[in-house]
């Protein structure tokens, strides 16, 4: 258990406070019970005293029977009966009083019952004595003497029982005195102990609560400091309700200083004001609904929003947290991230282009290996448990091995050399390969090979690569005969070097070779020209090149140079240089380390990227313009979806009512005009709906999924079944592929193309629509299309309709462009523009070909 956490928890001390109250209540209860016990003990002692008094009265009562006075009183003539009854009543009262006092003591009650019996006997004896004549003779006197003797015996028995009762009461009195003394001694101690515990708990709780309060104050001060220095907007809103208890707005309860920095709003002046008045963009927005949702459902909500304040567009990533009677909004300015995303997107596209170039380079390298006359092989070392090389695995061999040995490269790849070429362990070749790897030094050797009873000699060069060796083998049997060919190869090399020099000039690239041990460099001619000098105009070195670095980029250059010296990195980076003429250029450097003759060298290139940097800036500005255009398009969508359609719906409503009420009274001419008005309104509605469809085609590609175009075609056929049956059209299709796309957009694309073919059908024949599919390489696309994918699905829609003139092939994909009058064919001129936007949204291409009277073809390329 984490005792420290329990000790430092405020909840623990709240519990202790409650416990203290409980102990205090318990103490009061114990004290009350102890007082009751003491009172009970005192009452029991008092009770014993009352019993003593009762016994004493009873004793005095029956003792009177032994006195001469009572006897004389009883023997008086005349009222003796009255005196006796009075005496007897006194005894009964004493017995009843004592019986009430000892009602809780069975043994005393038993004794009292015997006393009752003896008293009754005593009364009878006294009564007998009273009934004897006062003037009696001697016999009567003897009888009276005997009667007195009996009375004395009865009195003796009564005294004996009385003594036992007194002894019993004395015993009870001692017990009750001890209980009273014990309660009187224990009660203060218990009360003092419990009160001390309660006091300690109260003191500890108070100290802890006081400390927690101090910590809370420190936390509040710290929180205020954080809110004052944070880069995030932190606001607290409380809801405003209408008469129906619905949230119509929020009021600002707290706002930090960032409101001034980002929105130009003073935090103190924001307090108590309406959120919608401060931020009008929230009115009726999704963001406002999320604020309400967070408050009503007591759940956290996060969202991204774009805010335009003071002609400045900012992006914020907001977190809404329900808190107390309102919501806490923490908004982080993510404008830089949004810009970074756009930059990243551009970089991604550049990377994709570079990957395509890399694929081309790989293809070129493969072609080079196929075209060269040398055998190139790469072996990977196979080591035993001691780390010694015992064999090699063949990882690569080019096609030139086949004319020499008759072997097919794919069949010997990934096999061991000991299996394919066991002779190398006998002719010394194995030792050459092992030495190349262990010594890290390239090795040249000759090896014979028997073919058609003739010895062919080959010259081999082994170079270490990782934990393997690359072997280049060339045949030297006809060295002299091949001297002319070698000369030609040298000439080609000179030409290639010339081409490379020209390529550096065209690409604004300079190459360099840096000897790290001596800090000397060799740079290409175009490198000199990039610096504004003629080739070899100065002696190059890393120190000399530093003089050309722009003053603001010297720190970055020195840092990279130090890393290069240590051999830590060779990453690409961009910086500025000052040319001989004082011009500022952006250059990008990249290089790699090599070991040449046992020395560490770096080879690399420097490229002038000034135009690219400036172009990137232009792109950034263009992106800003594009954002403005998108905002205008969104404004148009709102106008088109409501402001334009609302009056149009009213026009159509009143057209319908006029037609219903007065349609039968129109003249022929008026009926014709009325039909034109009605058709114009319907056409306007179709234009607006198609414009909305065109503008709402999303190019974010966030909802791409794998879709079967066969299912798309089947659904389109079902939707157009009435038109297909009316025209007698026949639609045939190859098996369509699966693509990554948006289902409803593909459905709209197919529907528009097939509907066009049905609409512009040839009046003399039934429509024949063919859909052909072919998978093509990206390099096979028409020259005017820029390929971004390795392979494409080519989908062609062919119809036998009226066709069109090929000079209008591009025009038909423009918005509102029509090749026919609206009286000839219905339509809005937007359908094919929607098709083009959908295809481009899927990174594809669409174009059309046609011939008047012979149909049209719509060709679509979609990435495979």
Automatic annotation (TrEMBL):
PANTHER family: PAC DOMAIN-CONTAINING PROTEIN, PHYTOCHROME-LIKE PROTEIN CPH1
Gene Ontology molecular function, alphabetical: phosphorelay sensor kinase activity
TM regions (residue ranges): 12-32, 186-207
InterPro entries reported for this sequence: HATPase_C_sf (IPR036890), HATPase_dom (IPR003594), His_kinase_dom (IPR005467), HisK_dim/P_dom (IPR003661), HisK_dim/P_sf (IPR036097), PAS (IPR000014), PAS-like_dom_sf (IPR035965), PAS_fold_3 (IPR013655)
Record has Ligase as a keyword: no
Pfam families: HATPase_c, HisKA, PAS_3, PAS_9
EC number from the UniProt entry: 2.7.13.3
Keywords annotated in UniProt: Kinase, Membrane, Phosphoprotein, Transferase, Transmembrane, Transmembrane helix
Protein name (database record): histidine kinase
């Amino acid at each position: 258990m984490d005792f420290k956490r329990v000790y430092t928890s405020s909840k623990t001390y709240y519990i202790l406070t409650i416990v203290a109250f409980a102990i205090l209540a318990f103490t009061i209860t114990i004290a009350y019970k102890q007082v009751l016990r003491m009172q009970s003990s005192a009452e029991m002692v008092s009770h014993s005293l009352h019993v003593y008094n009762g016994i004493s009265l009873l004793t005095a009562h029956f003792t009177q029977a032994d006195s001469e006075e009572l006897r004389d009183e009883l023997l008086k003539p005349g009222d003796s009966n009255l005196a006796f009854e009075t005496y007897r009543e006194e005894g009964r009262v004493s017995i009843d009083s004592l019986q009430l006092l000892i009602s809780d003591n069975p043994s005393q009650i038993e004794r009292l019952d015997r006393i009752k019996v003896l008293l009754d006997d005593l009364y009878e004896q006294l009564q007998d004595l009273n009934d004897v004549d006062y003037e009696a003779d001697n016999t009567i006197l003897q009888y009276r003497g005997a009667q007195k003797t009996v009375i004395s015996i009865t009195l003796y028995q009564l005294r004996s029982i009385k003594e036992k009762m007194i002894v019993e009461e004395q015993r009870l009195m001692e017990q009750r005195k001890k209980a009273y003394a014990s309660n009187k001694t224990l009660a203060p101690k218990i009360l003092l102990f419990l009160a001390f515990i309660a006091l300690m708990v109260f003191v500890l709780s108070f100290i802890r609560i006081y400390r927690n309060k101090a910590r809370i104050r420190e936390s509040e001060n710290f929180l205020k400091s954080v809110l004052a220095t944070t880069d995030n907007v932190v606001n607290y809103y409380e809801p405003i309700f209408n008469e129906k208890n619905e949230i119509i707005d929020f009021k600002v309860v707290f706002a930090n200083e960032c409101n001034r920095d980002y929105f130009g709003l003073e935090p103190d002046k924001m307090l108590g004001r309406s959120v919608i008045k401060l931020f009008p963009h929230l009115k009726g927005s999704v963001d406002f609904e999320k604020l309400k949702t967070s408050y009503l459902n007591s759940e956290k909500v996060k969202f991204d929003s774009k805010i335009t304040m003071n002609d400045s567009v900012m992006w914020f990533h907001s977190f809404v947290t329900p808190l107390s009677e309102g919501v806490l909004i923490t908004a982080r300015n993510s404008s830089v991230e949004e810009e970074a995303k756009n930059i990243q997107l551009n970089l991604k596209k550049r990377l994709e282009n570079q990957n395509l170039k890399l694929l081309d380079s790989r293809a070129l390298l493969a072609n080079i290996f196929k075209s060269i006359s040398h055998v190139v092989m790469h072996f990977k070392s196979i080591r035993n448990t001691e780390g010694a090389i015992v064999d090699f695995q063949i990882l690569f061999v080019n096609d030139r091995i086949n004319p020499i040995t008759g072997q097919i490269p794919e069949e010997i790849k990934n096999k061991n050399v000991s299996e394919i070429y066991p002779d190398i362990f006998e002719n010394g070749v194995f030792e050459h390969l092992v030495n190349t790897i262990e010594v890290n030094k390239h090795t040249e050797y000759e090896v014979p090979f028997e073919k058609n009873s003739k010895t062919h000699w080959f010259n081999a060069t082994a170079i270490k690569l990782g934990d393997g060796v690359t072997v280049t083998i060339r045949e030297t049997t006809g060295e002299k005969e091949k001297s002319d060919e070698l000369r030609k190869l040298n000439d080609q090399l000179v030409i290639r070097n010339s081409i490379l020099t020209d390529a550096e000039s065209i690409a604004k690239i300079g190459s360099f070779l840096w000897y790290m041990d001596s800090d000397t460099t060799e740079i290409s001619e175009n490198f000199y020209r990039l610096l504004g000098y003629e080739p070899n105009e100065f002696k190059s070195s890393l120190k000399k090149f530093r003089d050309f670095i722009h003053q603001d980029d010297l720190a970055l250059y020195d840092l990279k140079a130090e890393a290069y010296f240590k051999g830590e990195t060779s990453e690409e980076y961009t910086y500025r240089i000052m040319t001989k003429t004082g011009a500022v250029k952006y250059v990008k450097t990249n290089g790699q380390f090599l070991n040449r003759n046992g020395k560490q060298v770096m080879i690399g290139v420097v490229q002038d990227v000034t135009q690219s940097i400036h172009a990137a800036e232009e792109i950034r500005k263009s992106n800003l313009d594009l954002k403005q255009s998108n905002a205008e398009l969104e404004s148009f969508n709102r106008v088109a979806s409501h402001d334009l359609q609302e009056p149009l719906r009213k026009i159509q409503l009143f057209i319908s009512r006029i037609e219903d009420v007065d349609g039968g009274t129109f003249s022929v001419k008026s009926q014709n005009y009325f039909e034109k008005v009605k058709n114009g309104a319907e056409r306007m509605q179709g234009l607006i709906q198609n414009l909305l469809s065109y503008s709402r085609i999303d190019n974010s590609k966030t909802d791409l999924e794998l879709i079967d175009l066969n299912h798309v075609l089947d659904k389109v056929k079902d939707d157009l079944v009435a038109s297909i049956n009316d025209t007698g059209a026949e639609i045939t299709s190859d098996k369509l592929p699966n693509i990554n796309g948006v289902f409803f957009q593909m459905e709209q694309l197919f529907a528009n193309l097939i509907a066009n073919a049905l609409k512009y059908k040839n009046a003399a024949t039934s429509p024949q629509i063919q859909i052909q599919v072919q998978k093509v390489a990206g390099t096979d696309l028409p020259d005017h299309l820029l390929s971004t994918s390795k392979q494409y699905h080519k989908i062609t829609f062919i119809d036998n309709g009226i066709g069109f003139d090929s000079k209008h092939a591009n025009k038909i994909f423009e918005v509102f462009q029509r090749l026919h009058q609206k009286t000839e064919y219905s339509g809005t001129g937007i359908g094919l523009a929607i098709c083009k936007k959908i295809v481009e949204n899927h990174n594809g291409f669409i174009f059309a070909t046609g011939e008047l009277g012979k149909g049209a073809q719509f060709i679509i390329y979609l990435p495979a």
